[in-house]
Amino acid sequence: MSSQTPPTAKKVPSERVHHGDTVVDDYAWLTVKDDPETIAYLEAENAYTQQATAHLKPLQETIFQEIKGRTLETDLSVPTRKNGWWYYSRTEEGKQYGIQCRVAADGETPPELKAGESLPGEQILLDGNELAGESDFFSIGTSAVSPDGTLLAYSVNFTGDERFTLKVKDLTTGEMLPDEIPGIFYGGAWSADGTTFFYTTVDEAWRPNQVHRHTIGAASADDVIVHEEGDERFWIGIGLSRSERYLVLSIGSKITSEVRILEADDPTGEFRVVRPRETGVEYGIDHAGDHFLILHNRNAENFELATAPLDAPGDWTPLIEHREDTRLLDVEAFAGHTVVHFRRDGLTGIRVLPGDREGAEGVEPYEISFPEPIYDATPSGNPEFTTGRLRLGYTSMVTPPSVYDYDLRTRELILLKQKVVLGGYDPADYEQFREWATASDGTRVPISIVRKKGTERPAPTVLYGYGSYEISIDPSFSVARLSLLDRGFVFAVAHIRGGGEMGRRWYEDGKFQKKKNTFTDFVSAAEHLRAEGWSSTVIARGGSAGGLLMGAVANLAPETFAGVVAEVPFVDALNTILDPSLPLTVIEWDEWGDPLHDPDVYAYMKSYSPYENVDQRVYPPILAITSLNDTRVFYHEPAKWIAKLRDTADGGPFLLKTEMGAGHGGRSGRYDSWREEALALSWILDTAKVA
């Protein structure tokens, strides 16, 4: 094979029969990860992609330097107050990972920190750079300080497979305790007295299915399973209420919830059920002093907020009733007020309920106002139960991520920090817009757009999309994106059905037997941008379930797109969802349907699954990026897809890049991730024929 020749995947026909339908999969052999032939093929693809993009090396390096040059490499977060300490993280120039720190707290006003300097009395909790050592990959799964502030439980991973080893550090001495537990999942929670730590583990399908109780200082072999979830559709998690009064054990499928609670000062007690699971009913709980707050969708599609007595948490009384135009996203309970995060007209918002009950103390609930036409505002970093301030994050497509404190007494927004963008960035040089495309069934689909002022129309455009799991791609800022905008690009996000931007119905209209709305909405958005003079060429980009979108629209309307970037793409959806032995498959049946047992679902999924529907038409150039250790979307999905495109379709070229030591999120170090992004952006510029 010459260096100029793309790899050719061998064909090993593998037949399967479902519902009387016989399908031949020529590339099923690529699913065997530990087969040397599989690894050799992936490495050959990497070599070909490297050779095919060799001419982009100077541009990649330029873009990497632009991202790096706009980033304040030595930086720090805004401190967050909890139990007498200010917690924050900082980064240092030349180092891949963050450093977690704290200092003793005095008052509610965060201390002023200067980049590159440490505060008197600073205590380093975790230094990711020291922990990572020489490893090519490193991530932290949980980092939880005990309520009394003396112990830190944290977990680390060095492969990207999202399986962590739990460790415990004594913060009074700086010494590591002998406690060490391998194979745990994300998250965890302390008991009130810090003697006990609860954590989760996964089953053979890598579904978090068990919560364990570990006594500090005891052997892990003595840990007790406090709950094991036998229903394969459900996963579990454990947390501590903001009040630190209750341990909250959450059990959920895609459509159903069940919550169990236990007084945090009684860690060996029995968890009690808040309300038994009821198919199709989702709910969450927070402790609000003398009552619980319950956010649920029982007879309330866009969710309703209710209260419940401490001794009868399943007895719900409406507090904020259901509204057709407002999706309630989350509720946060504090000692003196309640905060509700919501979504309306495609934008997020924050509602404050003074006092313990709506309208208490003669003060009516109100919403915090924000100045820009499109934005994203989210309560964030509020661990203290008793506080007179609300911490929130704010961003837009032109405003860098900003951290505010909202003073509940004066109703004043206090800017604490806005992400520094070096190189003379001025938000006034850029402008953002909201457009509405008309879908094939007449539905109006919102599109968020950003460009540099003075950019001539029509312009080359990147159109981003996701459209699954009710996940919303809200307007946000990107340093890396500036490398496109400053070269005359328009960047747009299509808020398509299957996401949550327009409420729960928006999600329901883009799943199961309505999934194709996700794909046709995206095509309609691209066509709208062309028709309205925004776009000359459109390059599509998406990842994970958004990678399924990329594969589907490439089949549906290949002529619409000048190129496609598909990251960790879920493109072999039918084969994956047919196999209940694979991680997360049974859980996913509540999102996609069950093609294994339902012939109608099988036929519908087969009609849109990207791998199944590659044909001989002319496809645009495609860049697929994946990771060998991804446990959510396996590497073999894009590998099989690219192999089939290269064998069957015209057009291209079709490129596959596999990170051989990373997981679903790609490379872990910030400099490594910037280089990966520089590759994607240079490919986009080259494909759009923009220097």
CATH superfamily of the largest domain: Alpha/Beta hydrolase fold, catalytic domain
Q: Outline the low-pLDDT stretches.
A: 356-361
How is the CATH topology of the largest domain named?
A: Rossmann fold
Q: Name the CATH architecture of the largest domain.
A: 3-Layer(aba) Sandwich
Structural class of the secondary structure composition? alpha+beta
Major sheet:
8 strands, mixed
Could you give the distance between the termini?
Answer: 31 Å
How many helix segments?
A: 12
Average pLDDT confidence is 93
Pfam families: Peptidase_S9 (PF00326), Peptidase_S9_N (PF02897)
Domain Peptidase S9 prolyl oligopeptidase catalytic: 475-689
Enzyme class: hydrolase
Domain Peptidase S9A N-terminal: 6-418
General description of the model:
The protein folds into 3 domains: 42-69 and 423-688, 3-Layer(aba) Sandwich (Rossmann fold); 135-281, Methylamine Dehydrogenase, Chain H (7 Propeller), CATH 2.130.10; 316-420, no CATH class. The strands form 10 sheets. An 8-stranded mixed beta sheet has the order 32-33-35-34-36-37-39-41, with helices on both faces. Strands 3, 4, 5, 6 and 7 form a 5-stranded antiparallel beta sheet that branches. A 4-stranded antiparallel beta sheet has the order 8-9-10-11. The chain has 12 helices and 41 strands. 45% of the residues are buried. The longest helix is centred in the C-terminal third of the chain and has 18 residues, at 670-687. With 691 residues, it is of the alpha+beta class. This is Oligopeptidase B. Pfam families: Peptidase_S9, Peptidase_S9_N.
